[in-house]
Amino acid sequence: MSDTILNVRNLQVQFKTDERIIKAVDSISFQVRRGRTLGIVGESGSGKSVTSLAVMQLIPNPPGRITSGEIWFQARDAQEPIDLLTVPEKQIQKYRGEQISMIFQEPMTSLNPVYTCGFQLVEAIRQHEDISQSEARRRAAALLQEVRVLPPDDEMKRRILEEQSISDSEIDAELNRQKTSMLDRYPHELSGGQLQRIMIAMAIACNPTLLIADEPTTALDVTVQATILDLLRELRDRRGMAMMFITHDLGLIAEIADDVAVMYEGKIVEYGSVLEIFSNPKHPYTRGLLTCRPQPHRRLRFLPTVSDFMEVSMLPTGEKLIQAKKQDVQAVLAEAQEVSEAELDQRLQDLQKHAPLVSVQNLQVAFPVRGVFGQTKRYLMAVNDVSFDVYPGETLGLVGESGCGKSTLARTLLRLIEPKQGKIFFEDQDILKLSKSQLRQLRREAQIIFQNPFSSLDPRMNIGDAVMEPLVIYGRGNRKQYRERAEYLLQRVGLDPKWMRRYPHEFSGGQRQRICIARSLALNPKFIICDESVSALDVSVQAQVLNLLKELQAEFGLTYIFISHDLSVVKFMSDRIIVMNRGKIEEIGTADTIYSKPQTPYTRQLISAIPVGSIDRIQQRQQSRSA
């Protein structure tokens, strides 16, 4: 049997619209070998996810169809590879899930909301293996521990003893109860990161020959992301599994891939080993992707973007012509300008000469944990005795893993969640004592930009009305003035005011986030909370939005709290950083100090998990693997 598990030749996938035919995948070829990972990288719309769906024979027809090409797969029970494009639909089902498995990007649409996560995981196991229901549930719980939805048994026992005064004989019963409780939860009861890990558990349940991971860590914290990458590498090496790893982040590619295919506009524009791609990228698009991600070891005034490296023009035939700009990576970085430590220190001193805009004192937020009959058994401290100040014009970064309390804290600052105790001052007003009318006035001054721009916008409202809505609600001016303000803001965030009558579904994720930013600026606020507002974006679009937020801060004198689980992004944006863990502040300090001199093991763990994409890390990984 060949070491080549997957051999794709001249694959072409088209989608038919009312106006034209789109080549989503345009005559691409690649191989995936046993025990190796092919990383496929590119922005949204590059064709990388469509490529994975073609391999799985899941292209929706209509409107899409595979128009040409071959997909050769080396099945476990076959001496010679088979062309999946010639296999009937009923036969292809025996390969899906058991021999070719896929981790999808959006777990909420992949899991059935009316069934528990445990039921769906057990179903996936029993569909391919002849085992009992009880054994399948035991396997399901073990898989959840493997992907860190549940802690290992010894850690669970330690937590049980910390939280409850029970005898040793009762520990095992409580351990099984907690495992059962997790298996019996429905998808809506879990975080996005937990749901993605359940999808990974389902994908690896039957030990597939080929695992396709489509953006499997997009929703995860950097530490959990690192754990998942370690897990995928371990599974690949131990089981001799072949893997396709699809992402928009070359930093992740450096951590897991052996070979890399860079996709742009449906084509593979660069293909080679991971070391070749990172040490000597040839295509301007690859150079742009490598450079636009925030680099934690250097502080730039603004982030380079893909457009700094390439020019795209249209030919008379309708084809796009890509030309490299006459500048290399070092020239672009020089133009971006590194900010000196002395300049950062002086900026912080100038900011702190003023009274704080926001002051938080001994804040506590608790959620009741209810028993079987609805009575409150205990309280979960989501935010526990937190105190800090935010100065006018400052960006205060808030970083930590899912569940650390950062988003709860952000919503409490705007009184979207009521605290248990503590004080929150905004310009010397204790907002916890404000009446409804006073609170309404406060929300003209303080806004929030959420993580998911699509769910933040009403799909039935065009974007012009969406940006004007705050002005209409607060009655500031007439319809003509509202429209002029909306046009100015859309133009300011890089969108054409002529698009005001378009609807959210007509825009990309990055454009939708720009619309949300424009709406948040409608009432001229002083204070904006950015809650994971760039985590769902491609790295190139992320760079554009981060640069935009910095420009808007300088223009409008904005004060930000910038929340993210990605410390490299937070470091680029922030003057100071708060690191949160389990509802408490682990440490607070300047962005550079937190990164270069972390004071706690938790912060050091966050920093070590950042996928920096360095050549040294790639070489170390390859050496340790071959040892």
* CATH class descriptor name of the largest domain: Alpha Beta
Distance from N terminus to C terminus (CA atoms, Å) equals 26 Å
The number of strands is 22
Bin the helical content.
40-55%
Shape: globular
Main sheet: strand order: 6-7-8-3-9-10
**Quick check: average pLDDT?**
86
GO biological process, one term: transmembrane transport
Pfam families: ABC_tran, oligo_HPY
InterPro entries: AAA+_ATPase, ABC_transp_ATP-bind, ABC_transporter-like_ATP-bd, ABC_transporter-like_CS, Oligopep_ABC_C, P-loop_NTPase
Family: Belongs to the ABC transporter superfamily.
Question: Which tags fit this structure?
Answer:
24% strand; 6-stranded mixed sheet; alpha/beta; 22 strands; ABC_transporter-like_CS; AAA+_ATPase; globular; nucleotide-binding; Rossmann fold
Q: How would you characterize the overall build of this protein?
A:
The chain is an alpha/beta fold. The chain has 3 domains: 1-99 and 208-280, Rossmann fold (3-Layer(aba) Sandwich); 110-206, P-loop containing nucleotide triphosphate hydrolases (Rossmann fold, 3-Layer(aba) Sandwich), CATH 3.40.50.300; 392-410 and 439-608, Rossmann fold. Helix 18 runs parallel beside helix 20 (509-520). The longest helix has 18 residues, at 222-239. The two termini are 26 Å apart.
Q: Secondary structure elements and their pairing?
A:
Blueprint lengths: L3 E13 L4 E13 L3 E5 L6 H8 L8 E10 L8 E2 L5 H4 L7 E4 L3 H4 L6 H12 L4 H14 L6 H11 L4 H16 L8 H13 L5 E5 L7 H18 L2 E6 L2 H7 L2 E6 L2 E7 H6 L4 H9 L17 E5 L5 E5 L4 H8 L4 H11 L6 E13 L5 E15 L4 E5 L6 H8 L7 E6 L2 E2 L5 H10 E4 L3 H4 L6 H12 L4 H14 L16 H12 L6 E5 L7 H18 L2 E6 L2 H7 L2 E6 L2 E7 H6 L4 H8 L6 H12 L1
Parallel strand pairs: 3-8, 3-9, 6-7, 7-8, 15-20, 15-21, 18-19, 19-20
Antiparallel strand pairs: 1-2, 1-4, 4-5, 9-10, 11-12, 13-14, 13-16, 16-17, 21-22
